[in-house]
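BUG: 3D viewer hangs when loading the predicted structure for this chain

Environment: internal workstation, default settings.
Expected: structure renders.
Actual: progress bar stalls at 90%.

Input used:
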Amino acid sequence: MTPLEQIVKDLESALSGVTQKLKTDLGAIRGNRPSADAIQNITLSIYDQVLSIRELGSLSVLPPRTIQITVWDKDAVNPIMKAVDGAHLGLTTSSDGTTIRATLSPLGDERREELTKLVKKTAEAARIQVRSRRDDAMKRVKDGEAAKTLTKDDVFRGKEKVQKVVDAANSEIEKTVDEKLEELGE
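Structure tokens produced before the viewer hung:
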């Protein structure tokens, strides 16, 4: 592998990590759509052990704003409802036998604006990381030219390849942010 290929490969790897972290961070921001992922890992103490909700029943999403938990044991209904309420996720719970419905309240305008600002701030932090990684890669290309391991043609091609990788990462960031903002707007 040539030094130029290594620089581009390292940059792709670093930018992939930046975009994955952004997706994870934005996934943690509550939107206007319910997600079973939000409650499946809530734990509660029952039967002298600590269990998660997904170990006590099956989860499904009922559009537009309800998560349904079908509990396998009737005795677990009240402890699960208390655990969901105690998680402070903005869910209102109700039960019907062994079925619990956790309904997500709609976002208010003020809260939606706060979350929109948070999404934009998180995205800007990711863009800053992308620029930093690009600058590091460009510096490595110039250092390669100074050390005579890269020719002038390699430097030119390297700058183009680095910019192409950066543009791809930036478009991935924009796509992710647009999807999250659309979700908040619903």
